[in-house]
TrEMBL record:
<dbReference type="InterPro" id="IPR015166">
    <property type="entry name" value="DUF1922"/>
</dbReference>
<protein>
    <recommendedName>
        <fullName>DUF1922 domain-containing protein</fullName>
    </recommendedName>
</protein>
<dbReference type="Pfam" id="PF09082">
    <property type="entry name" value="DUF1922"/>
</dbReference>
<feature type="domain" description="DUF1922">
    <location>
        <begin position="1"/>
        <end position="56"/>
    </location>
</feature>
<dbReference type="InterPro" id="IPR036304">
    <property type="entry name" value="MTH1184"/>
</dbReference>
Length: 66
């Protein structure tokens, strides 16, 4: 099982295995304790988890009209 969590410091999404206790945020380097992180979603595999993140993210660059 994989978890989609948000970093308490910078708010970016990360995918972690549900077996880990901590995760270093790839964006700001903050060491997230899984028990204190906000769990956004659960996924059966890493690919599914990344698809969830893609749906959650709403890149302003893509939405902006020229
Ligand atoms: Zn972070």
């Amino acid at each position: 099982m994989y978890l989609v969590i948000t970093c308490p410091r910078c708010g970016n999404y990360s995918v972690v295995r549900d077996t880990v206790k901590t995760h270093e945020c790839p964006y700001c380097g903050y060491l997230i304790r899984i028990e204190e992180a906000s769990i956004i979603a659960r996924a059966g595999n890493g690919r599914e988890a990344r698809e969830i993140i893609l749906k959650l993210k709403t890149p302003r660059e893509l939405k902006r009209k020229p």
